[in-house]
Amino acid sequence: MTGKPPPHTxxxxxxxxxxxxxxxxxxxxxxxxxxxxxxxCSAPPRTSPEAPTGTSPAPGGERWRPRPGLAWQxxxxxxxxxxxEVPVYDIDGFENTAADVARLHRDGRKVICYVNVGAxxxxxxxxxxxxxxxLGRNNGWEGERxxxxxxxPVLKPIMERRFDMCRDKGFDAVEPDLMEGYGNxxxxxxxxxxxxxxxxxxxxxxHARGLSVxxxxxxxxxxxxxxxxxxxxxxxxxxxxxxxxLTPFIEAGKAVFHVEYAEPTGEFCAESRELKLSSMxxxxxLGVWRDPC
Length: 293
Known about the structure:
Elements: H1 22-38, E1 72-75, E2 88-92, H2 98-106, E3 110-116, E4 119-121, E5 135-138, E6 144-147, H3 152-168, E7 173-177, H4 192-208, E8 212-216, H5 222-225, E9 231-235, H6 247-251, E10 256-260, H7 265-275, E11 278-281, E12 291-292
Parallel strand pairs: 1-2, 2-3, 3-7, 7-8, 8-9, 9-10, 10-11
Antiparallel strand pairs: 4-6, 5-6, 11-12
Helix pairs in contact: 3-4
Domain Glycoside-hydrolase family GH114 TIM-barrel: 72-286
Pfam families: Glyco_hydro_114 (PF03537)
Protein name: Endo alpha-1,4 polygalactosaminidase
C-alpha cells in the first residue's frame, strides 16, 4: 500500500487565591524583587507542563512501545481527520504537517508516520533524489516502482532524511511500507538475506531517532525480525489464513495493527480477538471510514 506550529503548550496555571495577610504578601514581593535584582533578573529554568495522557515520553526517554489490543485509525488519503476516538493514528508522513501531529497529540493520541521504504513514488517531493539505477518494475500502483534494496549506500541517506522528517514533525513511530520486495517481481534478483539486511537497517534508522517502528507484512521473516521491531502492521492476514503467523509479536507484548479490505468483520473479528490483534476493516483507499472489531 501507499499512501507544526510547535507542540501545544497548555495555558499557564492560575494559582489559587492566597489567604496570607496583606503585609506578609507585600514583604514577600519585596524580597523576590530584591533577589531578582541581585541575580541579574535571571529566572529559573521553566519545566515543561505535563503532556496529555498517552503522549508523554516514556521514562528515561525510551521510545513508545505499543501493547497488544490498542485500537487504531489508518488514514493515508489526505490530511488526518481527528474525529475517530482511538488512541493510535497511522497517517501519511508527507501529507500531514507538524500541526496535524500536534493536534492529535493534544487529544492524547500516539501518531505513526507512514513512509514508503520499498518503492519509489513519482508524487513525493524527494522523488529526484533516487537515481534511475535503483528503480525497478512497477509494483502495481500508479507512479510507483520497486527499489533495489541491495543499494544500501544509495538508499540509506534518503531514508534517513525521510525519518528525520517524521521525527521533526513530532511523530512517535514509523510505518515503513513495502518491506517484502524479495517476494515480488521487482526487476532485481533480491534474496531473503537482502531483505533482512535492509529491514534491519530501516529499524536502526528509526531507533536512532527515538522512533518506534513497525514491521509491515513480511510474514515469513517475522521469527528473524520480531526483536528488531516494536510492533507489526498487517494487511489481509485473515483473507489468506495467515494471522496466526503474527503471534510472535503478541507473545513479545507488541501490538499487531491489522486491516482487512474484502473480508467482513463477522468473518475475522472472533479470531482477531482471540489472537489479540488490533483489527478493523477499511476501504482500499484508506480514507476516514473504518469498521473495527
